[in-house]
Amino acid sequence: MHNGVQAQVPVLYVADADAAQQFYQLFGYSEHRSGGDGESRWSYLQCGDLTLLLAAVKPRLFTVELPLLIYLYVDDLEATRERLTTAGHAVERAGYPEHAPGGECRTTDPDGNVVLFGQRRAVPEQARVERTGGEPRFSLIREAAEAVSRRGGAPERCQIGGPRGEPCPEPAEVKLADGWGDTVWGCMAHADEALLNARGAFLATEDSRGLGAFLQARQPQPDRAGQG
Fold this sequence. Notes:
Blueprint: E1 11-13, H1 17-25, E2 30-36, E3 40-47, E4 50-57, E5 69-73, H2 77-86, E6 92-93, E7 104-108, E8 114-118, H3 140-151, E9 174-177, E10 183-186, H4 188-197, E11 202-203, H5 211-217
Parallel strand pairs: 1-4, 5-8
Antiparallel strand pairs: 2-3, 3-4, 6-7, 7-8, 9-10, 9-11
C-alpha cells in the first residue's frame, strides 16, 4: 500500500504523568521527550522501536467506566514481574495461552488501566507456575459485570435466553448494544455468546455521559439574567 500509515503512537490519558512514566519504565520504556504547561503535560516514551504517549490534561478529557486494556510482549516475564512486585504493584499470573507460551500476567497502572503482558518464548512444562490463586484469565466481560454490580440498575434476569427461546434463570450482569440501537441485558455466558455471534454487538454502559449529553451541553442556554 502506498501512502499508508508510517507510524503508530498509542496515547494514554493519565492523571499524573510522572507516576505513569515511572510505572511504564518498569517495562523498559524511557522518556524520549516531554512538554506542556501547568494545565496539560505530555511525555513521549520509547522502548526500542515502540512508542507510548502519556497525556495529562486538566480537567481530564473523559473518564471511563471500564479500564483500558494494554497488551505488552516482554522478553523476560519473570524479570518483569519481579520489577513490578518490588515496586509495589500487584501482579496476577494468567496462565500460558497459545499467544504467550512463556506465560502471561496481569497488573494495573496508576490510573487503573489493565495491563496484560506475556512472553512469546516458550518455557518447559516443568518450569511453569500455576495461576495466582487459581483465578480465571482476565475477561473484559467480567470487568463489565463487576462495574454493573457496583453501580446497580440491571434487570433481575437475563433477557437473551437459550437458542430455542427458552428463558434463562441467571441474573442479568452485562448490557449489550449494537449500531442499530438495539440493547439487551444478559448473563455472563449468553453475553459472551452474543458478542461472538451477533454482528456489531458491543458492551454498553448506563453512563449518562453519552452522545446525547454531549450534544445537549452544546445547545445555547437561556439567558437567566435578571430572573428572581
